[in-house]
Amino acid sequence: xxxxxxxxxxxxxxxxxxxxxxxxxxxxxxxxxxxxxxxxxxxxxxxxxxxxxxxxxxxxxxxxxxxxxxxxxxxxxxxxxxxxxxxxxxxxxxxxxxxxxxxxxxxxxxxxxxxxxxxxxxxxxxxxxxxxxxxxxxxxxxxxxxxxxxxxxxxxxxxxxxxxxxxxxxxxxxxxxxxxxxxxxxxxxxxxxxxxxxxxx
Length: 201
Hints:
mainly beta; 1 helix; 14-stranded antiparallel beta sheet; 2 domains; about 10% helix; 14 strands; Outer Surface Protein A, domain 3; elongated
């Protein structure tokens, strides 16, 4: 067999180089695989995700704002925001629903202290029905006029008392009914000037 000047058969150095390259590549793949987290498969990390319909119109987004708070938005076919779910850095969670004109229509709120509430709004975006529960667990219901001046309110106090009032926010032209935990009840009527004109018993 002919020899080259270094004493190796022709082609042998090239074969050694190729084999060494393949071995090094295999070791590199094994090294990278060993460093890959086992739970990384199927995990996608991004600032925002968008869902589009068959026409390419964005119908939903999931992302984080400049403050890092996550938000899920859902849009109608015209690109109008119809629903939004937010979790703020201070722990508030809110689900907000909008009408076709993007005016606030309903809102659900949960606070870190355990309180929460629901508000329903008219076509102008003004709150007309408000239901909430305090951190102490006391429920309250208010039905308001379009200007928020007159309302029917029902409140439950921590001691078990129940209060029903009808009138304006300053207590003028109002009727109030209270039922105490011991079963006793009281009625108060005020005139337009806020003066008490009748009480019972």
